[in-house]
Hints:
By secondary structure, this protein is mostly helical. Helices cover about 80% and strands about 0% of the residues.
Amino acid sequence: MTGRGGTVLTFGVAVALIVGVTLGNGGANVMPVFVDDFASRFAMSNSGAGLVAATQLLATAVVTLLLAERAARQGRVQMTRLGLASAGAGFLGAAAAPDVGTLILANLILGAGLGAVCAAATAALAATDDADKASAVTISGTVGVTALLIMAVPAANHDLGKGTGFLLMALCCMAAWPLVRRLPDGPPASGSASDGAGGKGVAARPSVILLAGTALLWAVTQGAWSYASVLGRQHTAMSDSAVSAVLAISSVVALVGAAVGPAAARRFGRMRTMAAFVTAQALAMAVLISAHEAVSFIAAAVIWQACQLAVLVQMLAAAALIDPAGRLVASLSGAGALGTGVGPLAVGAVLDAAGAGVLSILLALGTFIASLPLLRMTVAGVGAAERHSAPSPAAEAG
């Protein structure tokens, strides 16, 4: 417990958060499978497939950023459901797309819908009474459900025909409609986003450097993730199903990072621990991109995902503690979504022009540079946690 007020993390609330965050980030997290699908379906180059992916992810990013302030107020369930309806329609359009133009339009629509879901669900994380627990539970649940989707979508494409994976995602949007009803709501519209942060408005308006660092980190991460399936298949000679299984299993095994990260931070210090995880994440990503052996690819995938989760859980918890209204979390999610939109396009272009060796070096350097402002914010969250957990004089008197 953090000692601050907020919605109690019951089972229903946890399910709503997991469903919202999973689908809000579904386009980005399942993108390796999507890229492989429409690249083969329409005979696209790496850069061409990256352009389609970027259309969806940039739409998600722009809508998430535009709705970040609105998501810090009441009406999150309605916003989420509106996003689910839009995303479901877009997934149906992508499944039935007869040409690239229609595919791009469908991805634009579904990306916008996922952006509304992402803004509402991530802002809701800050409305719980325990930001650390809510972040860990939500991320762990999201990873588990995403792993199932990573295996189910290519299986649908293989067994039922190319493009049917998008139909499966549309059905997921429909199923999510009743599950998000317990999503924690924001304060009334009359309150400012900074009221929950002890009256300090700084937290609700993240700096440009912080947003840029978040965008760069996710551009690097999503760029590598989007082509992990393609590179794994091309470099290690594994089958499509084998690579998908490796990515899904690595995501589940990497859940240990969500648990080890906070524990290591308490024992060794947040800055030292975060620096170690970021370093390991960057090196593992470089190995994943350039690996030509199945064993190296699998090991790098597990280490990369574990370190990424360890960093992500602490970042979300810190942002929620700094700004309980949720605008900071939603803004960072929007910046991250912006990076995920640019990442596949940039990585596809570098991969076509320079190859996997150069790409692996650039991705590792990008991870180091992007993490600096985020590390600073995470450390600042420690002070916020101490302020929230300290009993007030009134409470002591009572």
